Structure formats: structure tokens, C-alpha cells
User: Fold these one by one.
Assistant:
Number 1:
Amino acid sequence: MADGIKDKVAVIGMGCTKFGERWDVGAEQLMVEAYQECLEDAGIDMKQIDAAWLGTCYDELSLGKAAVGLANTMHFPYIPVTRVENFCATGTEAFRGAAYAIASGACDIALAIGVEKLKDTGYGGLPAIDSNAGALNGQTLPNVSAPGLFAQLASAYRAKHGVSKEDLKRAMATVSSKSHDNGAKNPKAHLRKPVSVEKIMSAPFVADPLGLFDCCGVSDGSACAILTTPEIAKSLGKKDIITIKSIQIAVSNAQELAYKEWDGSYFATTRNASRRAYEEAGIKNPREEISMMELHDCFSITELVTYEDIGISPVGGAIKDIMDGFYHADGKVPCQIDGGLKCFGHPIGASGLRMLYEMYLQLLGRAGDRQLKDPKYGLTHNLGGFPHNNICAVSIIGRQN
Amino acid sequence: MVGITSYGGYIPRMRINRGVIYGANAWMAPGLIGFASGERSFCNWDEDSLTMAVEASRDCIKGFDKSAIDLVYFASVTFPFLDRQNAGILATALNLNEEIGSADFSASMRAGSAALIAALNAVKAGDYRNALVAAADRRIAKMAYLQELWYGDGGAALMVGTENIIAEYLGNYTVTVDFVDHFRGADRDYDYNWEERWIRDEGYGKIVPRAVKGLMEKLNVEGKDISKFIMPCVFGGAAQQVAGMFGIDPAVVADNLQNVCGETGTAHPLVMLVAALQEAKPGDKILVTSFGQGCAAMLFQVTDNITKLKDRMGISGSLADRKEENNYIKFLTYRDLVTQDWGMRAEANWKTALTALYRERKRILGMVGGKCTKCGTEQFPKMEICVNPNCGAIGTQVDCEFANLSGKIMSYTGDLLTFTLDPPAHYGMIVFENEGRAMMDFTDYETGKIEVGLPVKNVFRIRNFDRDRGFVQYIWKAKPILVEEEA
């Protein structure tokens, strides 16, 4: 394996809008809101940005194709701007583009921004797959939705580990309830009400066994990061320098779809991406060394299964850890301390950067009521696609030394 | 010698009690009471004449060498396409050889029998060796029409050939008379029907006997020789009356299936023939009549081979796969007779790229996957590069049929978010007996009865309607086999 980018890239500024049903603003205003906070945090001038990456998933809903939506909004002085899209892992993909540009020496200061304006569809949930699916997918894909595809995990997990419907449902509800408690403390979160396990369990189904509260918020929002080298960060007068320890992506290769091995109860990509991320970061025992995590909790079952695939809970052991409070705010490895996708919300292109934003605030001791004690490493897990065909992005950031 | 070499049948699973239809309409059409007994079959939302013909044909060709089929005829008055050969879609769904003859037969209740006679003649003439004849109908009647009670949905398929004949074809006699009992203009969705008493007396009562008389004289047979008399006709006693004119024992008049299914349009003579063949003994003479702008009469003699043809659903088997659905609004919905608000997700644009459909027709319509000739891994879809991580060979795959493989559910859900006419939409990963797999829509499911490990079989169904353009997309779906059905 190559050396990787550990400690080669510093995060010197971040910004994030309030997520939610932002009826009054479009993608342009959302981006400016996150960008302003980020630029002020970095303490630099717009003209110092050498290159920018934009992440949006549903281009047809907001900015359209290509990177001009970002460049036009910010009036960048003809710098390179690239738009990336990788399903729900889009935000991390933008971050990775900017990080690699810095690590390679191609530029000194790079910006990554993600945005999604989802609440222009007229209905709840993500936009339906239709003619945008592609000429062949538009004739071959089954009639699926995101909750329905993630719900499949539950049936396969039950079959694999011999778990009852009731026990799994209660563990899933505990996952969501924990995130509601966390989100209630976050002024930027979309959903800010604590919800009891019992209420979550009795909510109507969206896709069996996922009920309403097993699903994350569908939100408008934007998040942004400015990256540079640790040396330049220091020259800019930064004291607490946050550096990237690793960014790893693993993409499904059709084995889950068409080969006999995968049993549907786990994410093959996450197991690969997390293993490589720990290697790149030099982390030997993640259960002991990772201080906090933001996982891609698009659905409660996703978070539950990911506890295992990310290498923190043993395989088959997630339910015990959940019920023990291991991932609660006062647990050993607090998870979704900002509310997660569940309550902070999920504007697709922004989510990967939103996760990093919370880890960044925590590492700098700027997380207010949610502040954890002396975190060392923050891990983000940003998953695009569906259990049988997905993109998994795992990032780890921490203080420079 | 030419004759029938195999048969298959398909009646959709759902049945509505006619009393339910009558009850909903009695306030305006109390006269319907005369036809309100028994039940009728009706298609799931994703079934039409083509999908029923595919299922009946699969039943028919079970155990046969498909490569020997060189002619396909499909008859219906409810084809999904007016101009795109429906027999060609049928042949593709069955993954038949492309070096074959094919034709659609339509525009009369006599289209099914005409297709059968044409196939028999084509094989008799030596132009073709094995002809598959399918007929199916999903006729739509307006609410409270008598025909809403009269019609049923269903289909049948027959194989015609010269070897291993189960019923020898002795001949036909046809009269063509422009008797308009009903009609459907080219720009109309529904039939227009004349008075039933006139149809019974002047139509069935006079035109059918002309054909039967002609056939008996032509083939020199008498009424007492007939072991089964098939006369599709909804009017009680009409068939017995015709039989009586020729000395045919009223006891050998075939049941018109009105009580359990309803009249399946142009398919009905074939449906009744398949039902008769399922009970036939060697030596039986079966006389089939087919009324519609005249009448065709055909005579078949059952051979000893009938006892060798086993393991077919036929009509009796598919009648046994029955699900009572007495929600009249659901029945009307599935026949596109009511307008609901299905929400914005139902508005999706489903334009079909015909170029992509053509390139991938075997995959999409035939459920043909690939088999790697290097490592033997069978996979769906057929891939350029073998999916086996220990192989990865490029360009080594040959066609591998998945349609007839049995499978088991690996994961599933019942989804209330995505738009379907049968919520919650069930789908999941299916693992097949060859260790291949596919994420598939389910159909004919029952909420609450699906679990990991449940066996499924593949069925050819409608995927989507492109209502803006009048196109119908088809796809293979997984039909869960519920435990009580297995028993």
C-alpha cells in the first residue's frame, strides 16, 4: 500500500448551514451560507482558493450538471472547479478531491463544498428513480426505493444471526432514539425532538421493518471545508491544526449483485474501506482508539449493521453494544453526536462534509452542549447507493499529533 | 399424422365473487342478478394477454426441446400492441430460436381457433414441424356491463406437431358469417353489445349447428362418437341444445367454466380444450366449436400418448392456484376503470430506449444470463467479465437461461414508499438453484407471509406502463410459493 495522505492535509476551515426544510432558499443561498462560515473560519480571502470541488447528487433538482453552478455563485476568478457525484457518498468525494489536490502539491488551498436542495420535489423521501436511471437501468431495475433496499438488511441480518423481529426492531429503535436525543442539542439539526423507543417502534411502516422514525430526515443544506498543507496552516497562524488521517473509498463490484458469497446481512464495501482507512491512519484497535463516529445512518438498520462492518462491534454483536449504550453520547464511542443523518438531516451532496464538520468542531472543542471530552480521532462513514450496490467512504481526522 | 403434442394453461390467481360485482351495481342494474353466481378470474395489475400467453406457453413447452419449435402463433383481441408483433415478444420471453415463423391472430372470438387451425395446416403441409399456439385475453367491460360478470381472464397454449401426438387432428369445418353480436371499433376501449336473446337464438343457436353439421358430414362421424363437446357459450343450456340436435350425449358437453373463471375471450375454445385434454382418455373424440362471425368446428382424437404427458398446470392446476379478492374497487383499479390519486411518485417518466431494449432483449424479456465457459459460474445478467473474483475471464460467457430456475428469498421488504398498484411493493434478492442471484420485484405476494428462505418461481410480468407513449415494459418477477400452495 502507498504511504497515504496521513497528516499531509490540514482542515483550516469548515462551515455548515442549518439543515432542514429550507423553503425560502435555493442551492445557491445554501452554498453561500456554508461558504461564508467556512471562509471566516479559515481566515483567508476567496482569491487564495486555488481549486474547488462541488458535490451534488440530484443535479436535476438544483444546480444542474457540471461545476458552473458553484463557480457562478462564488464568482471564482477562473480557477479549476470540478463537480463530483457518487450517490450519497458525494460529499466525501468532494472532500477527497480537494484533499488529494493538496497532498499532491497541485495547489496550496482547495475548497470542497457539498449541497443538496431536496425539498423542491413536492413529496417526502428522495426523488423517485425514473428516466434518469439510464437507458438500460430504466428497463431492468426492480421497482425499489431507498428504504426498501436498506430494509432488506434487516431480513438478512435476522436470518444470519437468528435474531427475532422484535429484538432487532427494538435495537433499531434504540439507535434512532439515541440520535434524536443528540439532535435535540444541536441548533443546526433538522429534527430536534427526543423520541422514545416505544414511539419509534409503533410508528407506521415505510418499508418493512423500517418505520417512519427508522428513516433519516430528507433535508436541504450545504457544508464546506477549506484544506491546505499543515505547513501553510501554520504560516496562516493556525494553532490547533486538524489533519486528515485517512480517506478510503470502496465500491461494489457486482459480486453482491451477482456472485454467490454475499449474504445480504452486511456491507462488503464498508469492511474493505474501514480496514484500509485504519491502515492509512495507523490505527490498530479501532474499538479503543476511535473517539467518536458519524456513520451513514440513512436508516437505523444501516447504522446497526455498520457498527460491525466498521470494525467497532464484533460481527453479530451490534445489538448488545447498542443496548449497553456503547454508542450513546455518554458511551465508549459516541455515534451521531450531532444527530446524524437521522436528525441533523440528509441533503445528499452535503452529508459527507457535514459529518466531518461535527468531528472538526469536536476536535477543536467547539461543539457546545454536545462537546465530548478530549476526542482524539473522529471517523466519518459516508455511504452511497444500496446494500447490494454501493460506494462506501471512510475518513478519519484528528489533531496534527 | 398431425395433431396436438402438448398443452398448457394459465388462469390468473385472483377471483372475484360475482355477487360482489352485482351488489355494487344492483342499484342501477338489478338485471345483473341473472349472471351473479360463481366467481370470475382477473389479472393482477401486472398481467395482460401477453403475460398470460407466456405462462400458458411455458406450461405447454415444459420438458420439450425448445429449439425444435419453428412457428409461433398468438391469438388475442386484447393485445398490448396493435403494431408490434405480440407473438414476437412471446417468442423472446420464451427464449425461442429466432429462425422461426410467427404471426398474431386477432379481431374475432374465432382468432384462437383460427390460429390453431392455421398451425395444424402449416405443420400438415410440411412447412413447419412444431408450432406453438397461444391464446389469451384480458377483456375489459365497463362497470355494470353484463360482460363484467360474463368475462374472465385467462389463456391456453397448444403445441402442434407430427410426433408424439396426444390428440390427432381429424379436420375442421368453418363457416364465416358477419353476425355482429358485439363489436369494438378501432378507436374504442369497450365492446358494444346487442341483445343476448338474439345472440343466443340466431347466433349460437343457428350458426354453430351449421359448422357442426358440416364437420360431421365431412368427417363422417355421428353424435354418439363424440366423447366431449366443447362449445364456449355463456348462456345456460345453449350448448346442450346444440348437442341434442346431433345426438351428442348432453353428459359429454364440456363445462364452460363460467362458474369458476368466466369466458376468456378468443382463448376460451382453447382453454376448454386444454381442460378437456387434462381429463381425456385414449380414443376420446373431442369436438371443439368456436363461435365468432361464423363458427369453426374441429375434431380431435386422443391417443395413447396422453398418458405420457404429465406435470402440467393446465387449466385445472391454475384454477387451483386461487386467491379470492372481493375488493371491487381493487378489481376496477386493476382494469383501469377508476381514477385514484396515486401521488407524485406515480408520475415518473418511463420512456423506453428501444435501442437498449433490442440489444438486451434476451436479458430483459427472456431472463437470459451468462455462464462463464472458463470457470462455470452462472450469473445474471450475462457479463463481459466473469463476476467470479477468482476468475475474471473476459468474453467467455455463453447464454444461460434463468427463467425456469427455482429460487429462494435471501432478503426482502414490503415497501410503502415506492409507487405500485399493489402496495406494499415487495421485492428482494433471490438466490437461484445455480447459485446465481438477482434483485427482483415480487408479484402475487401476500403481505405478512414473506420470509427469508421462501421458495419462488420466476414469472413474466408488466414492469411499467408508459402512458404518455402507449408502451408497456415487461420484466421477470419472483412469485413466492406459499407453503399451503406447495402442499
Number 2:
Amino acid sequence: MTRLPRLAPLLGAAAISATIAAACTPQSQAAPTDQEVSSALVNNVVLPSYKKLVDATEDLEHALHELNEDPTDANLEAARKQWKATRKTWEITETWAYGPAETDDFDPNLDDWPVSHKELAEALAMDSFSANTFEKLDTTGRGFHGIEYVLFSVDKASDLTKQQLDYLNIAVEDLEQNAKGLLAAWSGEDGFGKADVEADPAKTVGDILEGMIGCLDEVANGKLGGALESGKDELESTFSGNTGADVVSNISGVRVAWQDSKLQALVSAQDSELAKALTDQLNAAISLAEALPARLNDKLDSAATREQIETLMAAIIAAMETTEAVSEKLG
Amino acid sequence: MRFNYPTKKILLASLALIIAVGLGLLIESEHPVWAGDPHRPAGDMTVFKRTFVAFETPAEGLTTAELDRHIETDPLFEKSHVPLDGHAGAGLGPLHNAKSCSSCHVLNGRGKPTAGQSLFRVAIKEGGGIEPVADIGFQLQDRAIFGHSPEATVKRTWIEEGGLRKLQTRITRPDGTVLSAQTIARSLRIAPPMIGMGLLEAIPEEDLLANADPDDQDGDGISGRPVWTIDSDGERRIGRFGWKALAASVNQQSANAYLDDMGLTTATGPNSTLAVDGRPADISWEELDGVTYYTQTLGAPATAETSDSPLMRQGSVLFDQLQCASCHVPSLRTGNNPHAVAKVINDQTIWPYTDLLLHDMGPGLDDGVAEKGLSLSSEWRTAPLWGLGMAQRVNRKASFLHDGRARTIEEAILWHGGEAETAKQRYQELSKPKKDQLLAWLKQL
């Protein structure tokens, strides 16, 4: 009992130090709530991403308009470059392409694959190509890949026919309308963002994780795995040789959803090791994807490239499995 | 001898106990609807997810090899088909309703009653709706590949009536003529959900027949009857799939859908590359078998409530008391098939809430389109109710009944008639709290 008075200042100092230490370390920051995560997803991730997509489709429209006005090789190159830039703003949204993108047909309208070569060839062989002609094409003759197919199908700008130029301008207008429709579907009081996502935060956390898993699964097993089996004609974005860039954007989008929605912080507060493992695996997969050769479809016969793809697939699947573990943990 | 007080107490208590046990046994034997594990509707194949991917998640209980095959065959369901070079009609179409399975079975769930996610069956009204429409047949293909015209285009208008809605259609042929609504029956069909199909396929025929009572011999007003049809292997079997139970197996349903809905022919067998018409098949046997396998190895989601929850028990009792369970039979068992594509399909107790039989649903749901020798226009297969509460989670604008007219589960109940008229009236007579309880139970399926 007599020892206590001497210990008291020491204990007090220890308590104060611990409190200060705790206040200054990252673990002590209050973990985000489900509500904060769903709000961050909508307002920091999804809406800004779709605004960028809309802006980028407008840029592509300008580039294709320029090409139509003045079909030079420089303008062709600029349009191709813009297609790739606009493509990036779409591919990064793959993780949150649930909701309206899926159920209201914006995804197939923007990004159906494969391209229906036969129908497109027939349509472009008509005497003229009009909005009416375009209406008769299915989504496999429209969207990003319809534009890609035509834009990257010629050696030089002077090879582009009037029908092809008209097609490009009509198709990009349709692309822009769908991008705007998708943004509108998520916006406002009655939009998917407020009325669905923010209205049910617990569901949102589960949905983001499902979106991440779905995207990683599709990239690994669908895009890459399927292509290894079928051969080069099956690689999405094969005409522009953009498959590798698509993959980088897809996985980057997974990382954006993970971090910018504060989901990483939420999980970290519960299990910092698991959260770090996922972050590291996503970073590793992105690095491997960035190292993929350009024009991947032309290199599928190379054993070295196939091995590189298989290594990337394994890295993506590892990240997918960790995301499933996170999902399990959160219940 | 007078009873002393303690003995009297013991006697009364014993009497109360006997009565209680007796009542309990009586209730148990008459209403066993909550016995077992309805929380796991697909038995060991139950998927413990109630997110938007619940219907797309592979079933639990698959072996590593079975799961690998499921993942491998998954892309077949989402594949967008296109017309191909070769003979006329090679590949997609030329006439069709959709170009991929998942266009209509959105995320493996219901389609919306909109163009691209649904289709129309048609028939000549006169004579009971069993005759095909000239130049169209029984299914209206409203899409065509470039350079071809669809059979017709359809304008859909929903008319509100007393809190419910009915569909009005204007069907216009390419030459501008309109199909008369007086003479030509049309029935909108949304895509049903894809869950638990392998399990439904595995219910022994004798168990389905045990629930059938075509002449209502027991006098309960319910007269479910099986649809007997010829399966794709030539065997006579009970139809189980589709709104009218026309397909006996998942293989048959898939082949029919490929042909009727997408204009894609399928190979006639494992050793053939030709379709029934003698031309190269658009879909190889391997691909048809793959899509079939993928479908058979999907599960069904766990209910939101656990089996011992008060809502599970109360809802189940209400469901039974209203006579809903007479057609939406809560629980069945799968058989033991040594050739089952996945071992876990065998010997499962499942909770699909259907007898898979045809029932007359009354004039309100009679669209005038029948199937000659198989079903009347007012008859419908009892729709499975597992996953019901997930329908709008998976596809937020999905709706209910064959044409999606019912925007809510309650609207669907109110459309019940014919054999289900009693059940509907009992529902309407319930107090508001009891109605809410039943709806809450249905929504957690």
C-alpha cells in the first residue's frame, strides 16, 4: 500500500504517454462507418468517374468530327489516341458496373463484345450510312468496339470511306448519350447513388466487394484465361491492341474502389494484415499488367508472353481470393 | 377421499402438460411446414449470399473438379452471339429475341418486361389458343440481324386499374399491318430466374405425381396436373421448366431457348456437328452441354431468416393456412442419380415452394395462348418462390408473374385466381399485421 503513492506518478505518466501515442498513431483514427463508405463510393468514386467518362466521350466526338472534316493521317492518329484515352475512363469503372450499367443495358450499349463483323460489313457496304442504318445494328455493331473496329481497320485515313466516317460520327454520338444516361441513372435524389447505394450502407459494403471480385474474376478467367484458350481473335480490344491497357485500367479500378471509398480503412480497422495483403496484391497485379507487351494479341503464340499472362492471372486470382476472405470476414 | 391441494396441483399441471403436448403434436402433424431447415433452400447447394451476385454464384458443395467446370462454362451463358459466315442463318438469328442468355436472364435473375429482356408467345384466339399465327408461329421474334426484318415490333403500354396494371400491346408487322387484338392472343413472357435448376431436375417423378390431383379427388379445390412431354433424348418425362413446364430437362430447355429465342441451332447429339435441319449446328454439343452444366450447378440463396426465427415459423404457418402451400409446396427431395453431373445434387431436401405442376389460375391471368395437348391458356406452372425476395435486389426493376405485371409481391398475390381464388381471398381477409407478416416472410425467401 505504501508503494502506491510512488507508483502513482509513474502510472499517470504512462497513462498520459499511452493516450498521446494512441492519439497520434494511424490505428486510432476512427474507422469509417458503412454510411461513410457508401457515401464515399457514390460521391468520390462513381459519380466523378462517370463525369470523366462523359467528358471523354465528348472529346472522342470532337476528334472524330475533326477526322470527318479533314481525314488526314494526323487526325486519324489523334482519333485513335483519343479512343484509347476514352476507353481508359470506361474500363476503370468495371468494378462498379453493377446497378444501372448492368440492369439498364448501359454496359452492353457501351461495351458489347465480340463485334459482329458480318453485320457491320453489310451495313457499311450500303450506299449511305445514316442514323437509320445505325438503328438496325445490334449492340455488337456499336459502342466502343464498333468504333474501334472501324477506326483501326485502315492503314491510312484516305482509306476510310464516307460510310465509315458517317458510322464513326453516329456511333460516338450514341456512345456519348449512353455515358450521359449512365451518369444520370446514378445521380440525383431518385438515382441509384442516393436511392439505392446510400440508402442501404450495409448492403453497399458487400456490393463493392462483390464488384471487386467480379471484376478480378472477369479479367483473370474471362479476358485473359478465355483468350489463352481460344486464341488471338478473342482478345477484347484486339483491333487496337489495347487489351493490356484495358487490363491495367480494370485492376486500377478495383484499387480505386478499395481505397477511395474508404473500404480499405474500414477493413484495416478490423484486420490490418488482411487489408494490407489485399492492397499489396492489387499493386502487384497492376505492376504485372503494366509490364504486358503492347499488341498482346499478336504475341499470344510466344511461350514467354503466355507465361507472363499466366503469372498475371495467378496474381489477379490471389487478389480475388483475398477479397473473398475480406467479404467473409465482414460477414 | 378428498384430494389434497398438492395432488390437485400436480393433476392439473399434468393435464395441462398432456393438452399442451397433444396440441403440439397435432399442430406438428397438421402443419409441419416449418420442420427442417428452410433457411437452406437448396440443401447443401445453398449459396450464403444475398447480394446482387447471389444467383450467379456457383452452388456450394461442388467438388474442385465440378467447380472448375462451372467456372469454365460460365462465360457461355453471357456470350453475345453474332451472325457468322457460312450457310444462311449461320450464327445468331436471323430472327431472334436476344443474342445472349444473360440479356434476358439478367444476372441469372428475372428479366424486365421490356424489349430485349422479354418475349411474346402468340396464338390464334379462336379454338382455345392452340393454333399458330401465320408467318410467325407461336413465338414472335421481334429482332433481326442486319438486312432482315423482325417478324413484328411491339409497342407495350401498361394500363393502371384498381392498383394493379395490365398490358396493352400493339403488334405491327414490317409491312405496317397491325395484328388484331381481337383475333390474335399475345402473352408476354419475362425470363424466369436460373436458380436451383439442377435440383428441380432431380426431383423424382413419383414425388411430383404424388402432389397431382387433376380431378380434385380430395375436394380441396386444387387440381394440379403434370405436363407429359418428350425430352431431348426421346424419353417421355414430366415437364418442369418454363412458365408452362414445357421442358423436361435443363438440356431441353437450353436447346429450346437457343433455337426459339436466339435463332441458334444445336447439335443433335455428342457425336454430331449437325442440327436437326441437317446443316452445321450453330452451337456444338459441347457448348450446349456446357451451358446445361453451368445451369445445373447454380444454387439458390439462403433465406434472410434462420430456421428457428419467429418470422420463419409464423410466415410458414400463415402460408399453409391460406392454402398457398397446396401449390407452392414448400419442400421436396431430390433423388439419387448415379449419373448426376454433380454429386451434391443427390439426396437433398430442398425448399423451392413449388409442385412444378400446372394449375388453372383464373381468367385474370389467362392470356389466351395455350399449348396444344399440353396446357390451357389459363394454366401455369407453379412458380418456384425460392429467391423471391432477391428478385429486385438482383435486377432492381424486375417484376413478378409471367409477364412482369406485378410490381410487388403483394400485387402478384392479388392476381391469383382460379384454383388460387380461395388463397387470395384468405389473404385479403387477413388483418394488416398478418398481411405484413406474410409479406415479410415472402421477402426473406
